Amino acid sequence: MPARSIPNRTRRQSRPTRIIAFNKPYGVLSQFTAEGAAATLAGFGFPPDVYPVGRLDRDSEGLLLLSDDGSFIHQLLNPRFGHERVYWVQVEGNPAEEAIASLVEGVILKDGPARALRARRLQETPQLPPRNPPVRYRRSIPTTWLELTLSEGRNRQVRRMTAAVGHPTLRLVRISIGRLELGVLPPGQWRAVRREDVV
Question: Which of 55, 95, 119, 148 could crosslink 30 through cysteines, CB 3.0-4.6 Å?
Answer without folding.
Answer: 55
